[in-house]
Amino acid sequence: MKTKKIPINLYLALALVFLILPMLVGCGTISAGAVQPEQENLGAAETESGGIDLGEIGTIEVGVEPTPLPEGITYTNETYEFAFEYPETWTLTEEDHGVVLQQGPNRLAINFRWADEQIDRFGRTGMGAGDLIYAGKVNFMNQVIPAEALFFERKSKAVFYGESGKVEIGDRVFTIALEDLETDYLEIDLPEGVIAEANTILGSFRDLAATGGETSAAPSGLEAHLIVQSPVQQGGGEPIVVNFLLENHGQEAVYLLKWFTPFEGFGGDIFKVTRDSVIIPYQGPQVSRTAPTPESYVYVEPGQGVAVEVNLAEAYDFSQIGTYTIEFRSPRISHLARSEAEMATTMDDLGPVEILSNEVTLEVVASTAGMGEPVRRTAEEAGELISAQLLAQKPGLMEAPPLAFEELPDERIWEELQGQVFRVTEGIFKNESFFLRHDRVVQLGEALGGQGLTSLVVSDLDQDGQAELLFSYIAGLGPGIGPGTQTRVGMVEPDSGALRVIEADMAYLGVAALRLEEPTVVSLNVVEAVEAIKVLRFLDKLGYLSIENQGSDETLMVNFDPNLPPEIKRNILAEQ
User: Is the pLDDT confidence value at 63 over 50?
Assistant: First the structure.
């Protein structure tokens, strides 16, 4: 790696009620047969409707994903020699041998003591019902510690950090837990955003014993300037090359420790990368280090800069379509010297160094290469693409989950959209369904361990010459929250490289499905299960679907019949 000098210039949808096992028939509505263990699917009648059966709740792992914090507050504990940052949206309370950070009902408790210190009560006692599932890693005082999520009935009840419930840093012992102690235990489901902020708070911890008591980075006069070589890139998987220019705005030359900068390559998480405001986790190496040497520094003259090229795709995932933002993170373990004599010789000399950075944007769009001849995927091939998508969406999953897939065959989907629909038949994402076109994947609604799709329809609804994939799916609500079943409607735009999914702003509190009445006319209808023949029978017609343009955006609408009976109208939720 060469350097050079350069002059400076859902509506809530949660639990299970019905299990829809889709098999396409007739006019695009999915029919279904009940599935029993080690038995084949029961056949569905050749009709405009499909079968329905009860299913079992599955489990789903919630990813634990680091995320940047807003401007916040620094807490310093001089007795136990550590400091950390937390956002203003959290409140901090000091306790005996601990601090508690609170955001609403969510409570991040951090207890600490000396290894030889004897105290009557240290940390939490007891644990609620559930299973502990590995949920990723967190960098705590420059030490990587595991996180374990406590799951019960498909909900994240708590997160515990460290080996065997504790973390040892030098001669200090910490116990760390994120919990909700105010909500009824059966209703607790820690939000992923709260887990992500808690992880980032822990990642901001600094060991003052190792940094000479320095609590914050002093202005260095250095600034990082990033330039993306290709601001628009077709398809993922290609190098993402960024020019990293380090400028010295000070009045004298400086030596900067290369650690945690592109001048040493990737030795840690040195960039903040987001895709459409979602953090992209670091996937590169974590380097173990010894005392720095003079060769560990880069020299920057006053009014000058040094530059290096770095391929971000080596450490961050850019495989998904979307808008990415990139910013350099100031190194927390570094050193700035004015001369060779001031260079650090031990780890105790090191501390954070502030380096300002601009933010750059990169757009990854659909690749047009090879799209002239669509490829029909097998269930195994589709499974690899879908599993990779799930892994990217749930960073807490350290590897792709073992899943089995089946195709929901519909020749209109293939002939008019060059796409396929696959459903997960086994594993933690059972009954989730996905639309696959070339190597692009989007999820069709949410099965949430149970129901999933009720219908699929191909129609040129807006009569623009490009057919859309319309779908309906069932989502349930938990006990005491609301009615047991709700149907929602969505649409996939295949002419969009990113396969954009648009959902109608409505819900029907019951079971409903789409029906293709004419090539450009689609209705939404109430259906009921007929157990004797395992089909769904169409009942009241709720209304018709339409696509409306609002500027550059499109909206999927369900135009409800104003003359519906009152008992039907009461079950319709729609924004007025």
Answer: no
